[in-house]
Amino acid sequence: MADQVQPTADPPDARRARVRTAELAVTGVLAAFITIYIVVRIARADDTSQRMLMLQYGLAAVCTLAIFSFLYRENPIYRFFEHVLVGLATGYFVGIEVVNVIIPNWWNKMVGAKGAPAEWSWIIFPIIGLLWYFQLFRNPRWNWYSRIPIFFFMGYGASLAYKGFFNLMFGEKGQVMDTFRAVLPFTAVGAWDLINNLIYVAIALLVLSYFFFSFKHETNPLLRRSAASGRYLMMIAFGSIFGTTVMGRMSLLIDRLYFLYHTWLGLPG
Predict the structure, then answer these.
(1) Which residue, of 44, 109, 205, 225, has the fewest CB within 10 Å?
(2) Which residues fall within 8 angstroms of residue 183, CB to CB, at 6 or more apart?
């Protein structure tokens, strides 16, 4: 009986080459279609301002679609536009920092803008800031200078953070102070406020009991049940926080899809 020739599978390199060719073909077709569409929209515009607006819409759509290409897989187009986004965002925020912070809060005060007396002592602050860049020196003889601004910024930042945390927790509207609510019937609150306060305090106590480890939860039925209830309540709270985060991301996606569908393509609906 003659041996039958078994069909051989394509080598991995050949399959990757075909996939690569198909990806390039699809990318080329989409790029040609998008380019033609943008040119047609610009040509149909009434005046120069409308043409510039259509060009801006086209560039924004290209950037959006390039970022969405990551849903297929990571690719050079996505990486390029990712770098463009990071570069533009960095340049934008540097410009905002210079215009809104450095010039009005440092430069104008130092040189005495708008008739104010010059305060040349402010020149010490950029000198301290430039000491950060001594971290680029590998020689310990120069590298240690970068610790001077770290010393100032860490101390100043820690004091501000502590002040903000204290106000957040123990201020007039702080979290700890807000936990003390009226729960007695003869207090001057309404019926619904009283019910709401009772629920609030009960949930706070149940959650706190979960972190009470002075007694073993296994040997104390009351503490075990309250700790279990506190765990479930925390799971509900964390779930709602996570759901809010997801909804925030979904709102960004909906905004981009709305832009592509209505603003760029101009489709009704």
Answers:
(1) 44
(2) 194, 197, 198, 201
Quote the CA–CA distance of 236 and 185 in Å, as a whole number: 29
Q: State the burial class of residue 198 (Cβ atoms within 10 Å of its Cβ: 0-12, 13-18, 19+).
A: middle
Copy the structure tokens of residue 230: 């506190």
pLDDT in tens, 205-244: 999 999 988 878 888 888 889 999 999 999 999 999 999 9
28 & 113 share domain = yes
Give the DSSP H or E segment for 127. Answer: helix 124-130
Q: Is residue 111 part of a domain?
A: yes
Distance in angstroms (rounded) separating the CA atoms of residues 144 and 228 = 52
Residue 140 lies in a domain: yes
Domain-ending residue, one of 180, 198, 215 = 180
**pLDDT at residue 251 in the model:** 94
- What the block records as the tokens of 150 is 């770290």
Mean pLDDT of the chain: 86
Please give the residue range of the domain that contains residue 191.
181-269
Residue 246 lies in a domain: yes
Report CA-CA distances (Å) from 171 to 35, 161, 177, 182: 58, 14, 7, 18
Q: What's the pLDDT score for residue 219? A: 82
DSSP 8-state assignment for residue 139: S
Percent of residues, the chain, with pLDDT higher than 90: 37
Does 92 share its domain with 49? yes
Domain end position, chosen among 180, 199, 224: 180
What is the predicted pLDDT for the residue at 1? 46
